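From: lab user (bench 3)
To: helpdesk
Subject: output format question, protein + 3,4-dihydroxyphenylalanine

Hello, I'm new to running complex predictions and I'm not sure whether the block I got back is the full result or only part of it. Here's what I submitted:
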Amino acid sequence: MDPEATLDAARERISACEDTEALKDLERELIGKKGLVAAMLAEIPKLAPEDRKAHGQKANALKQSIVVAIANRAAAFSSSQLETARRADDFDATLPAPLADRGSLHPITQVTRELEDLFLSMGYEILDGPEVELDHYNFEALNITKDHPARDSQDTFYCDEIGTLVLRTHTSPVQIRAMEDRTPPFRVIAPGRVFRQETTDASHDHTFYQMEGLVVGKDISVAHLIGAMKTLLRGIFGRDLDVRLRPGHFPFVEPGFELDARCPFCDSGCSVCKKTTWIELLPCGLVHPNVLRAGGVDPEEWSGFAFGLGLSRLVMLRHNIDDVRHLLDGDVRFLEQF
Ligand code: DAH
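Helpdesk reply: Thanks, we reran it on our side. This is the complete output you should expect:
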């Protein structure tokens, strides 16, 4: 058997194969266990010893060439199968590709931006303050004495051994920085992240968001405070809501209040207001003279009001979210709802 002629014939038959099945059959016939090449190898013992080696080499070379020819034919099949699939009726190359997932603004960012717009329109400046804050600004200058319970390491993350650096526990330190940097009268808000060392649960997280407000001017009174808060409520809930003040104690305001608003979600009591028709909106008050002084403002000449709005709480109220920890989870299933 002439190996060259055999190879030519094999190649012809391989290219004549029309489908994978036929190619498989041919492969078996040519290089299978009982195939052509196997038969060639089986002849070896019958040959004269000096011819055996050359015969074996030829048979193996033939096998190699057939393997390559079959592989090429198989590759041609799979690309033409792809081509057929592309042409099939259910494949439309003009259809738009699936959309990439799109992000959205976090609900905290949304409410922050809305409030910034609202307060800008009322002539407030928007301030930022450091999240790693000096004890002086976070406590001392805010009239929070060394023995005040809020100083307890339970509530505060300390950043150094000697306790001069803390993660700010509220946005109130920006009040002092604001006073140091400007001369009254002025109005500022300072939204941002705050930190507390506490056990987390559905209503407490170690990291949350607040927005501080501070207005300093001549003869600022509780009436101004209530007016500003009513505007705030209109901005948040889109309508006028009655408010009431209850006494509240914070070392940096005197008098200090808890401001409640009529529940925006019901008339006669619901789960949000816990059947009381009032919701706790924010703590606020008139700036304590010691705090004005700490900020370099003369309390004989100037007065002011301040408030501390819980942004995380507000977002929870607004969207009826029952667990504050969702706000920091980064779980897309939660976030994509906004
Ligand atoms: N800083 C207070 C807190 O985080 C909240 C607060 C209370 C802020 C009264 C104020 C205020 O500006 O007047 O608990």
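A quick orientation on your result: The CA atoms of residues 256 and 285 lie 4 Å apart. Let us know if anything else is unclear.
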